[in-house]
Write a structure and sequence with these properties.
The protein has 119 residues and is an alpha/beta fold. 47% of the residues lie in helices and 20% in strands. The chain has a 5-stranded parallel sheet with strand order 2-1-3-4-5, with helices on both faces. Strand 4, helix 4 and strand 5 form a beta-alpha-beta unit.
Amino acid sequence: MMILIVEDDKRTILDLKSILTELGHNIVKIVPSGQKAIQEAGDLNPDLVIINIKLKGEMSGVEAAHKIEDLYKIPIIFLSVFIKNCLNKSLQLPDDAVVVSKPIKRDHLEYCILRVLNK
């Protein structure tokens, strides 16, 4: 599977690269901002986008994810240090949003990938 990662934390990027490679997935690109994520999603047409909810810059990960879903219909997994129930209410995430909490655990990420692709 071809995956676009949208993350600005080096430790999380290293964890994702390690786990996704172990699971047999290909990382097509890693970008640090929401604007770049939208552009690369259109250019690269990945099978999945894994995006940090809180990105530095003008656009949050949630805003970028909504645009990617609207424009390209690419499945999204959100990354966050917070638990999903708090996020859904405060950030207006959809009820069926798939969220992986940091630090990332291999089995949880693997489960979330399967879940988002079977929506």
